[in-house]
Design brief:
mainly alpha; 2 helices
Length: 64
């Protein structure tokens, strides 16, 4: 783990919480376009969280 371990973990946790909140908003949205937009944003955030989590753990390295 790198020297920013706890800070990275906190950042990833905050991103996951935000993604969960957006997912809830998407479920409640009555507008299909807004729902799709929010769902796409949630998918991207989940992907970003996974990438950051793996980078923090040393499982992957960012592309140059």
């Amino acid at each position: 783990m790198n020297e920013n371990g706890p800070a990275n973990e906190r950042h990833v946790r905050e991103m996951r919480e935000e993604a969960f909140a957006l997912e809830t908003d998407a479920e409640r949205s009555g507008d299909p376009k807004e729902r799709r937009r929010l769902q796409q944003r949630v998918k991207q955030m989940e992907f970003d969280c996974e990438q950051e989590s793996m980078m923090a753990a040393g499982d992957i390295y960012p592309a140059p």
